[in-house]
Amino acid sequence: MKYILFTVFAAATTGLTSEAHASTYEYTGLPLTNIVNDPDIDVGYSFSDYLSGSFTMANPLDETSGLTDISSAITSYSFSVGESSFTSSDSDVLTFSVGTAGGNIDEWEIYLESTLPFGVSPNIPNTSSTQNYLYSSSAPLGGVPQDEVYFYTYDEISGEEAETQANVLQSGNWALAQSVPEVSSAGSFAALGTLLTLMAFLWERRRVAV
């Protein structure tokens, strides 16, 4: 009887297994080492600031792959450096490519752009263009590994412009924060139906035997 009940449970819960595993990858960079703050911009950086953030996909990355554009597979992302932030709801992806080895991200190139609201530059009152860029790269195609953030604002009336930028010429590290199986409602109801049907069958069989 115990064997039969185990078989019932195994059969019923099979429907709860889903192929999709929502996976979140987290990045932690190194403290900034090169900073140029413009007094006309009220966004500034310090040497204690560093790039951090994460992105989530419906499925985990391939165990091993070369540098690949994954922008269309990302369901959400959020990165920040000091006072600057970039999220999937208020910024655009210019480049988002990663490569893996043993399931870990070992190369990447990420370039994000965020257009901030007017008024963030009080000393340039007629701001007509304000943009914030974030770039992180392990230099997979050559060059220098780095995390960099760049802020630019422009006054269309006076032609005055100002910019603040900061970087560190080293790359940080990635880690898989979580990989959670997603269970569909259809699979849940199907599994529950199977469980109830088999339990009813066993109960009737036991009643008849008695």
| Global Rg | 26 Å
Distinct helical segment count: 2
Element pattern in H and E? HEEEEEEEEEEEEH
Main-sheet strand order equals 2-11-10-9-8-7-4
Q: What would you call the structural class?
A: alpha+beta
Helix content: 10-25%
Coarse shape: elongated
Q: What is the total number of structural domains?
A: 2
Mean pLDDT: 79
Number of strands: 12
Strand content: over 45%
Distance between the termini: 15 Å
The biggest beta sheet is recorded as: 7 strands, antiparallel
Low-confidence stretches: 2-12
Salient structural properties:
single chain, 210 residues, alpha+beta, 2 domains, 5-stranded antiparallel beta sheet, elongated
Overview of the structural elements:
This protein folds into two domains: 45 residues; 163 residues. A hairpin with a 2-residue loop joins strand 7 and strand 8. The chain contains two helices and twelve strands. It has 210 residues and is of the alpha+beta class. Helix 1 runs antiparallel to helix 2. Helix content is 18%, strand content 47%. The longest helix is centred in the C-terminal third of the chain and has 25 residues. 20% of the residues are buried. The strands form two sheets. The chain has a seven-stranded antiparallel beta sheet, with no helix packed on it. The chain has a five-stranded antiparallel beta sheet with strand order 6-5-3-1-12, with no helix packed on it. The N terminus is likely disordered.
